[in-house]
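Its record is quoted verbatim for completeness.
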Amino acid sequence: MAVPTKNWAGNQRCLPTQVHEPRFTDEVAAVVRMAAAAGERVKVIAGAHSFTDTAMTDGHLLSLDAMSQVLAVNGNDVTVQAGIRLRDLNERLSELGLALPNLGDINVQSIAGATSTATHGTGVDFANLATNIVGLEIVTGDGTVLRADEHDEPELLRVARVGLGALGILTEVTLRCVPAFNLHAVESIEVLTDVLADFGNVMRSTDHVEFYLMPGARRCQVKRNTRTDEPARPQSKVGYVRDKWIGENLAFGTVCRVGRRFPSLAPKVAKLVMSAAAERDVIDRSDRVFCSPRHVHFVEMEYGIPFDAVPDAIGRIVDLTSRLPFPPMFPIEVRSSKGDDIPLSTANGRDSGWIAVHQYVGVPYEAYFQGVEQIMDDYNGRPHWGKLHFQNRLTLAHRYPEWDTFQTWRRKLDPAGTFRNAYLDRVLGTP
């Protein structure tokens, strides 16, 4: 039965012919075999937090929400079903005395969705989440189930860690975790020009650093998270509700709605947002520091560029915003990550600085995002696969040294295009 489907931001919608909710790998394989025999297409959805149409289809849609179990624990290696949400995975790992070494700030994605799009956190010595995968199980375009790890089929493992759903359906992943740890989180308001002038040292000042700036504001919010053996000293419940729920969600949502209705107030709204940014100093479990609730809906674009190019790029983006017909009301987010060797990872072969731009839902964003993308193109920027961009296979191929490697595996694992959709056709072409 056709079921209308949309993503979290509400900017992507589709009407699949049928929605399936498998519980086990053999049920996934059966759906794929049935669809392939009929010449139909299959896509997978879980948290629906991608801003692109990467999971959208008019064919069969698989929800992996029922595939959320921890299957095995071997030391620090934990095997899970691919549909488990990061928030649930974090809780299960904590019970085991383990943690993922790094996380982004959103925890509603499935582990398969997050890794398949090269989702990352921040930290110059930490790579994206997919690099933690040391084993996987994947259902290919004809319903065959393949397994790969560091010893058996290591090249498949390397390539399929970031697959965009183009190689097959991940059903299980084995994650190399680390002993559970706390983070000492210090958030401060600092002068933007000082942060940009000393960018390299700021980003290397501790384990995980990111900062947020509003165009037109003199100051920015810098978040430094340091690994520590000190006992937890979490924020009080009252303080957490004040900062995360009232400040970052309720109040922020209110000022965004005002700015959307009265565009002339948008610059004042932007400065108000930064002036209200909180300072805090807490110690808590790592995932509780990395991740925050997000209830104000937005659309987002994020690009990875060479690390040292970030200050120059930020200056150009700030200049761009002064000429926009509708200035942004969301902060610009700046992070970093370590390079890796995954063919379609946005950090393949280079340490990266990350620049993310956002706009409140219902507010025009095209001129802003297109302008930013033109700037990113000058630095050979690579768009986050799960966030909005305007690139295609012709503009992207030369930015990835192992583009052809990935395409070879795609033709091998899905020659008939069972996993195709409009997004993959646009960014990868046809198998």
